[in-house]
Write a structure and sequence with these properties.
The chain is an alpha+beta fold and 1013 residues long. It has five domains: 249 residues, Jelly Rolls; 171 residues, Jelly Rolls (Sandwich), CATH 2.60.120; 133 residues, Leucine-rich repeat, LRR (right-handed beta-alpha superhelix), CATH 3.80.10.10; 47 residues; 244 residues, Transferase(Phosphotransferase), domain 1 (Orthogonal Bundle). It is 26% helix and 23% strand. Strands 1, 2, 3, 7, 10, 13, 14, 15, 16, 17, 21, 24 and 26 form a 13-stranded mixed beta sheet that branches. It is elongated and about 125 Å long. The chain starts with 17 loop residues before the first helix and ends in a 16-residue tail after the last helix. InterPro entries: Kinase-like_dom_sf, Leu-rich_rpt, LRR_dom_sf, Malectin-like_Carb-bd_dom, Prot_kinase_dom, Protein_kinase_ATP_BS, Ser-Thr/Tyr_kinase_cat_dom, Ser/Thr_kinase_AS.
Length: 1013
């Protein structure tokens, strides 16, 4: 990468023409890709370690081959194809190296001449199938003298913002050098060099800012792999298409670079100096300095790139042909060849060099920290009266106190490394001491930036399990890189639990409607913290595996709408029976819920089944016919009685004799008096206005006056009065009295200081004093108690028919009560399951099944309450605007969001971040269950109350345990797939869309409580 000069020397003017730039680039690449054969022979045998063996072994083999007859030579070449160390896809070679040529087609590896045979492979086995595309660089930027790996690129246009290479076969806790290279070469013929980000695992490595098509950009880092695989990722930032030319991984000895840990990586400083070819700050000093020389493998056993520092007018070089002992510098293992030369000042007593911040690593802040490694060895055998001694100063201060340094003859040392902190330019000075007779020397140096790995990756077991699942089912989505981290790139369909002191764990996985086929993959069983697993609405086949019952944290499992077969494992059945697991297996034609016994019937069983299949429907049909006659007869009697009673109530003459109302009866004059002539209107709905009043004892009341234009007639008024007079529950609004004075109709009931739930969720007060998740759960539970009382405790049962947030009123302490009983219907007796009546209610809350069939049941209230629960969770209205002109029903909006697995976009932001994610899961699941079709699949209000109690207990206990907040993770949440499947069936009902998208009917619903301010 280009950067500002870091020494006083004026940089040479770079060539500006394409041909000139290409010539300069070619010189650079020739240095990387070709060494003089004579120098190879001179250096061979002096490199030490395994590289000696590797290099020395080449000459005998070549000589032997030359001496063989032509046939034997051919045979040798054929056999060599079989024994050459091919690199298995995604795995290291025999040296532990991974050498990737990005952008070439999948095929055999090839040897790289510049490294004497290191074999490079296609990147096809290191990226997901179909990720990115291959391209060759464009003339005039391609050249036959370029190393082959720089002639192609893989680019990642469109699709996921993050694309990753996965390097496998590593040692957990092992140290590795990772190197990535980028040569744009105008491969896309757009001549628009891009910028993008480079990541080491889940932590940012560098910003790749390409400024010229013919510049090479190389980045190196020393990392500690936390697992047996490691990932390098390219992230698109909206400034062009990410691409890559090459990627290398080299293992290091455990003792090398001890500053590198799992929590801290070393990034080789990437600042270009004027005379250097690359921006890699790992330098040696070779004479003549004007000849640009690069050392890497096999001279460096770890394939580090050492480049010549270049010519500095004030310096000269000293060299030796003798071997240099590097045993005392084993922590960094500098190759002997780079230590056989050194820089020293020509006429002076000091040697200075400096560096500037690396903008690619964003280390220009005051917190920037660097690791500086200085390599020294005396190359001249000094006479007794000669002394080379100098002080080492960093930014003018001695880094080793008052001690001066004297290099040892042909014995390499790394002077104690030092962490240099702070932004701006830094300078290193080697200053001869007063008693020194020789100037200072410097053989080599490296400069690293210290990068804290603040992002913690997903638990290793979870990450490997997810990779296995991705591979088995060939899932695309945005499943690139680490499943949970960074949070901005977390995989769709996951919910992760994060901790500041440990890895992320996967707690929910939603793969509903993901086109899964085949068996349930065993990798699911490796997700030890998984609580919620939704595999519904796919084409999974085979038996339900036993390992699902062994998953220790699993609380919800949805396998519905697949092609599974056989019995349910007995352990899963036990978990379902004891309540520790919610299990859904519906719509699997070949599943039988009979424990471990076989599902296949024998011939006798088949015959018995056939007889039963014929006889049972006949018997049931006969019973239903008889029951229908009896029910119709009883209903006719009840309806006649009801109509007679209602007619008598409408008669002023019989009003005084009626015992229907046991509450106080007000005259119209009394109402004018207690409301101060209807002075303060606190609400208005389809029935009319609601006014604030005060009784004689000062108690506030709400007075509901029927307007002359009201859509609610005498019958509805009398119905509400009758129902309020006979229901008594803490979660139902209490009737204090009524007025039927000539043509004036009114109800007087308790005043609710907290207003209605709709206003508290979406009105002005919702911003000033938002409801917490705990309070919302309490309000939902209160409301559910009220409806349960109507359905279960009233004799005969009552169906409210207009359950909505506007009809849930709140006290000053935010206790909730159900109100507005004008549309309530009565069952003739407690044994009836439904009644037939003209549909009524509020659009958006109205049960589609009730609307289309006119069959009203308690499950119609359950449907409406499900909408209320979704409002409580999201804060949205039943009709959610997605554009300026288009709205969708809240349930459809929630399902769309949940299919992305992101609860942060669903949970009402006004709640803040303090709510238990498990509690939110359960309430969302419950809300969608309440909307299932057909209505018999919905829970009862008793079931709803039980579920909400459990959710509230989870929230209450959150402060006493380690629960996850809604935003702890990518915060993914899922609806059950069965709900989505069943609701999809509901879409076939006529006018479903009209019901769910319609605006609230009539005038604004009645608001009882203080008027919005």
């Amino acid at each position: 990468m280009r950067a500002q000069p870091n020494v006083a020397t004026t940089p040479p003017t770079p060539p500006t023409s394409p041909a000139g730039r290409l010539a300069a680039t070619r010189t650079t690449y020739q240095a990387l890709t070709s060494h003089k054969r004579t120098e190879q022979h001179q250096e061979r045998g002096k490199t030490g370690r395994s590289s000696n063996v590797h290099a020395a072994a080449m000459e005998p083999a070549t000589a032997a081959a030359a001496a063989c007859p032509r046939l034997l030579v051919s045979l040798f070449l054929v056999l060599s194809c079989f024994v050459s160390p091919e690199l298995v896809h995604g795995q290291p070679d025999a040296l532990g190296f991974i050498s990737i040529d990005c952008g070439i087609a999948d095929g055999p590896s090839y040897p790289d001449e510049s490294t004497r045979g290191l074999r490079y492979v296609s990147d096809a086995g290191f990226v997901d199938a179909g990720a990115g595309a291959n391209a060759g660089i464009n003339p005039p930027y391609s050249d036959r003298e370029l190393a082959a790996r720089y002639l192609t690129v893989r680019h990642f246009s469109g699709g996921a913002a993050r694309n990753c290479y996965t390097l496998r076969g590593l040692s957990p806790g092992g140290r590795y050098l990772v190197r990535s290279s980028f040569y744009y070469g105008n491969y896309d013929v757009l001549n628009r060099p891009p910028s993008f980000h480079l990541y080491l695992g889940v932590n940012r490595w560098a910003a790749v800012n390409v400024t010229a098509a013919d510049d090479m950009y190389i980045f190196e880092a020393v990392v500690v792999s936390p697992a047996d695989f490691f990932q390098v990722c390219l992230v698109e930032i909206g400034q062009g298409t990410p691409f890559i030319s090459g990627l290398d991984l080299r293992p290091l000895r455990a003792a090398m670079y001890p500053e590198a840990t799992v929590n801290q990586s070393l990034l080789l400083l990437n600042v270009r100096r004027p005379a250097a070819r690359f921006a890699l700050n790992r330098y040696h000093f070779w004479r003549p300095a004007s000849f640009y020389k690069i050392y890497r493998y096999p001279f460096d056993s770890y394939d580090r790139i050492w480049q010549s520092y270049g010519d500095v007018a004030a310096w000269t070089n000293i060299t030796t042909a003798a071997d240099v002992d590097v045993s005392k510098a084993s922590s960094f293992d500098a190759p002997p060849v780079v230590l056989r030369s050194a820089a020293t000042p020509v006429n002076g007593t000091r040697l200075d060099f400096s560096w500037s911040p690396d903008t690619s690593q964003n280390n220009d802040s005051s917190s920037a920290a660097y690791l500086l490694l200085l390599y020294f060895t005396e190359l001249q055998q000094l006479p007794g009266n000669a002394l080379r001694r100098f002080d080492i100063l960093v930014d003018g201060a001695s880094w080793n106190g008052s001690r001066s340094y004297t290099p040892k003859y042909l014995s390499a040392e790394v002077v104690e490394q030092v962490v240099v902190q702070g932004s701006g330019q830094h300078t290193v000075s080697l200053v001869a001491t007063p008693d020194a007779t020789l100037p200072p020397i410097l053989n080599a140096f490296e400069i690293y930036s210290l990068r804290q790995m603040t992002e913690l990756a997903t638990n290793n077991g979870d990450a490997k399990a997810m990779m296995g699942i991705r591979t088995t089912y060939m899932l695309k989505k945005n499943w690139m890189g680490d499943p949970c981290a960074p949070k901005a790139f977390a995989w769709n369909g996951l919910n992760c639990s994060y901790s500041s002191s440990g890895p992320a764990w996967i707690t929910a996985l939603i793969l509903s409607s993901s086109l899964l086929t085949g068996a349930v993959d065993p990798s699911f069983g490796d997700l030890k913290s998984l609580q919620y697993l939704d595999l519904s609405n796919n084409s999974l086949s085979g038996p339900i595996p036993d390992f699902l019952a062994q998953m220790p944290s699993l609380k919800f499992l949805d396998l519905s709408s697949n092609k599974l077969s056989g019995s349910i494992p007995a352990a899963l059945v036990r978990k379902r029976q004891n309540g520790s697991l919610v299990l859904r297996i519906g719509n699997n034609a070949n599943i039988c819920d009979n424990g471990a016994s076989t599902c296949a019937p024998n011939d006798k069983q088949k015959n018995r089944t056939l007889i039963i299949a014929i006889a049972v429907p006949i018997a049931v049909a006969t019973l239903l016919f008889v029951a229908a006659i009896i029910i119709l007869h009883r209903r006719r009697i009840k309806q006649d009685t009801w109509m007679a009673n209602s007619a008598r109530l409408n008669s002023p003459r019989d009003r005084e004799r009626s015992n229907l109302f046991e509450n106080r009866q007000f005259s119209y004059k009394e109402l004018k008096l207690i409301t101060a002539n209807f002075k303060e209107e606190i609400g208005r709905g389809g029935f009319g206005a609601v006014f604030l009043g005060y009784l004689e004892n000062g108690s506030p009341v709400a007075v509901k006056i029927r307007s002359k234009t009201s859509s609610q007639g005498d019958r509805e008024f009398l119905s509400e009065a009758q129902h309020l007079s006979r229901v008594h529950h803490r979660n139902l609004v209490s009737l204090i009295g009524y007025c039927k004075d000539k043509k004036q109709l009114a109800l007087v009931y308790e005043y609710m200081h907290g207003g209605d739930l709709e206003d508290r969720l979406r009105g002005e007060v919702s911003v000033a004093t938002p409801l917490s998740w705990h309070r919302r759960l309490k309000i939902a539970l209160d409301s559910a108690h009220g409806l349960e009382y109507l359905h279960r405790s009233c004799q005969p049962p009552l169906i409210h028919r207009d359950v909505k947030t506007k009809n849930i009123l709140l006290s000053a302490d935010l206790d909730a009560k159900i109100s507005d009983f004008g549309l309530t219907k009565v069952f003739a007796d407690e044994f009836m399951t439904h009644i037939t009546t003209q549909p009524a209610g509020t659009l958006g809350y109205l049960d589609p099944e009730y609307y289309n069939t006119s069959r009203l049941s308690e499950k119609s209230d359950v449907y409406s309450f499900g909408v209320v629960l979704l409002e409580v969770i999201t804060g949205q209205s039943p009709a959610v605007a997605i554009t300026d002109t288009e709205s969708i029903h809240i349930a459809q909006w929630v399902r769309q969001k949940l299919s992305e697995g992101n609860i942060e976009s669903i949970a009402d932001s006004k709640m803040g971040r303090e709510c238990d994610v498990n509690s939110v899961w359960k309430v969302t699941e419950l809300a969608l269950q309440c909307k299932e079709q057909p209505s018999r699949e919905r829970p009862t209000m008793t079931d709803v109350v039980a579920e909400l109690k459990e959710c509230l207990e989870l929230e209450v206990s959150r402060g006493m345990g380690n629960y996850n907040s809604v935003t702890s993770g990518t915060s993914n949440l899922s609806a059950t797939s069965a709900d989505s499947h069943n609701d999809a069936q509901a879409n076939d009902l006529k006018q479903q869309s009209v019901l769910e998208l319609g605006q609230v009917g009539d005038a604004s619903p009645t608001h009882i409580g203080p008027a919005p301010r």
